[in-house]
């Protein structure tokens, strides 16, 4: 079966710096793919280029059988490939619910339907009790949930998550992960950039490792974390680490 997401030779340069150097990666429908790699290895750039926030310098992106290379971010999101950001930025003056209603959802033209979707999403993520609070009153962790909620308004086939639990307390982290797993069971595909290796180990079916803008390994978590090249990539940024566990946690 053709992959849901197929990236071929994606390249992004910032002046002389090649942040993504011919990155190729295929994700199957229903898969959870983890992307790991040391700081500055090009993971966020990959998401930004893939989703049209950066103009690519080469390569193609095919999603659900359609070539979406060079498309604008909103069109890509509406095609079913949505993303969250490492730094969340809700409309702070709006309430939580209003933040969801502000998402452009072409599939739900009737306001009543959109309100119903918003209420379902709020309940699913267990933030319905703060629906009428201003977003500015939310904790950092709750804002991460709001970010996810905004993405769910689009009912996407595939969600790219950029560090979904960074800076979130452990109880809330667990809740976020439970919800992601539930969505995956219902068929949503995920690509997740995360430094928290326990999360990757628990959630990802397979892992792609970036280093210096390139894919250097791919496979299941235990397989890739044993690879010498992966250990070396992390060692370069953490010379004191002695074991793989030290390196990757
Ligand atoms: N807008 C930009 N302008 C110039 N250089 C950039 C820009 N964004 C990223 N870079 C550079 O591209 C390289 C890859 O950065 P990127 O943020 O994609 O890495 P990352 O793997 O996501 O890192 P981290 O894990 O720290 O988030 C780095 O050298 C970074 O300094």
Could you give a quick summary of the protein structure above?
36% of the residues lie in helices and 24% in strands.
Walk me through this protein's architecture.
This protein is α/β, with parallel strands linked by helices. It has a domain at 5-85 and 156-242: Rossmann fold (3-Layer(aba) Sandwich), CATH 3.40.50. Helix content is 36%, strand content 24%. The protein has 10 helices and 10 strands. The strands form 2 sheets. It has a 6-stranded mixed β-sheet with strand order 6-7-8-3-9-10, sandwiched between helices. It has a 4-stranded antiparallel β-sheet with strand order 2-1-4-5, covered by helices on one side. Strand 7 (158-162), helix 6 and strand 8 (189-193) form a beta-alpha-beta unit. The mean pLDDT is 89.
Small-molecule components bound = adenosine-5'-triphosphate
Can you tell me the residue ranges where pLDDT is under 50 for at least 5 consecutive residues? none
Q: Can you identify the CATH class of the domain at 5-85 and 156-242?
A: Alpha Beta
Give Rg in angstroms: 18 Å
Cα end-to-end separation: 35 Å
- Number of distinct beta strands: 10
Question: What percentage of residues falls in helices of 4 or more residues?
Answer: 25-40%
* Estimated share of beta-strand residues: 15-25%
Known CATH architecture of the domain at 5-85 and 156-242: 3-Layer(aba) Sandwich
The CATH homologous superfamily of the domain at 5-85 and 156-242 is called: P-loop containing nucleotide triphosphate hydrolases
User: How are the strands of the largest sheet arranged?
Assistant: 6-7-8-3-9-10
Largest sheet: 6 strands, mixed
What's the helix count? 10
Kindly identify the CATH topology of the domain at 5-85 and 156-242: Rossmann fold
Global outline: globular
Q: Order of helices and strands, N to C?
A: EEEHEEHEHHHEHEHEEHHH
Provide the residue-averaged pLDDT.
89
**Which structural class do you get from the secondary structure elements?**
alpha/beta
């Amino acid at each position: 079966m053709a992959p849901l997401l197929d990236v071929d030779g994606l390249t992004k340069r910032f002046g002389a710096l090649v942040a993504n150097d011919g990155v190729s990666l295929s994700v199957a429908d229903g898969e959870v793919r983890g992307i790991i790699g040391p700081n500055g290895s090009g993971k966020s750039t990959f998401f930004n280029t893939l989703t049209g926030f950066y103009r690519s310098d080469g390569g193609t992106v095919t999603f659900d059988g359609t070539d979406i290379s060079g498309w604008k971010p909103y069109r890509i999101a509406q095609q079913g490939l949505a993303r969250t950001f490492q730094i969340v930025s809700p409309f702070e003056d709006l309430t939580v619910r209003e933040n969801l209603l502000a998402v452009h959802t072409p599939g739900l033209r009737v306001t009543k339907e959109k309100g119903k979707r918003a209420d379902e999403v709020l309940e699913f993520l267990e933030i319905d009790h703060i629906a009428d609070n201003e977003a500015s009153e939310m904790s950092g962790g709750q804002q991460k949930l709001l970010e996810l909620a905004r993405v769910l308004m689009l009912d996407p086939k595939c969600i790219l998550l950029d560090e979904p639990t960074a800076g979130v307390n452990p109880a809330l982290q667990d809740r976020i992960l439970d919800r992601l797993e539930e969505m995956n069971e219902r068929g949503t595909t995920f690509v997740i950039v995360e430094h928290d290796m326990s999360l990757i180990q628990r959630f990802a079916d397979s892992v792609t490792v970036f280093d210096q803008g390139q894919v250097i390994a791919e496979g299941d978590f235990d397989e890739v974390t044993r690879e010498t090249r992966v250990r070396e990539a992390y060692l370069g940024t953490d010379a004191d680490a002695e074991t793989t566990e030290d390196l990757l946690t």
